[in-house]
Amino acid sequence: MTRNPWKQDQRNPAFFSSLSMSEEVTYADLKFQDSSEMENIQEFDQVGVKAPPAPSHVWRRIALALILLCLLLLIGLGVLGSIFYLTSKIEMEKLEKLQNFKDKLQNNVSLQLIYNMDSLEKIRNLSSTLQEMATKLCYELCRKEPEHKCKPCPEKWEWYEDSCYREFKEYETWQKSDSTCSAHNASLVKIKNKSVLEFIKSKKLKYYWLGLSPKDYKPEIDLDETIISSDWFTRNTSDLHGVMYCGYIHNPYVYYDLCSRKNYAICEKLANPVKIESILMNEEPGERM
Question: Transmembrane residues, as ranges (predicted)?
Fold first, then answer.
């Protein structure tokens, strides 16, 4: 029959002694754990929550560095803001000065333009006055010396007011007479104002073609009526065809005859402006002593 070891150990006094010590150690551990848990519970009841562990020296240094960096950034932003403000202020002052200079310059230019315009107008008036005086003086000189060098008309042409006149003594048809005038850059005389009328009447012309438009009939009018006439020639002489009648002067009337008949011609053209220097220099350089 096999024996039970457990039962044998129970009979051994040493076994009981060992068992008793083991139970005491276990009881002590349990009691220590219970006391630790009670202390934690009491600490939790007093504080409310368990305090976190204290931060280490590394985190303190990092926090301090971040604070310093933020301060440096704030200082930098302040400096940049001050620089930007000062720069903007300086630029605004420069822009204001430039605008003031521009306004003054425009004002000066406007005043100068006004002054120049006034001066130009005065010069024009003075030039016109001098030209008028030279014209009157030259006209008086030409009355004494018809071919005076100040005369604004070509040689053999008579000067009256602002036109030059010349009589051609060759008998020619009206169309040929008109061509003769054109060859001298002139045209047959047209009487369009009272002054010219009196000038033509003073010459007592007879059988001189006038610059009247050809007609297909033979009217007869007084010379004075030609001023208000609308019959002054404006067409080309090449338009003449068939039997046409042209006007000629036989002081103090205007008659019409066949354009193919032959009469004298009197031409007119615009006179040149009188040269002032021709008035001031009465003698040629070679004629001076």
Answer: 62-87
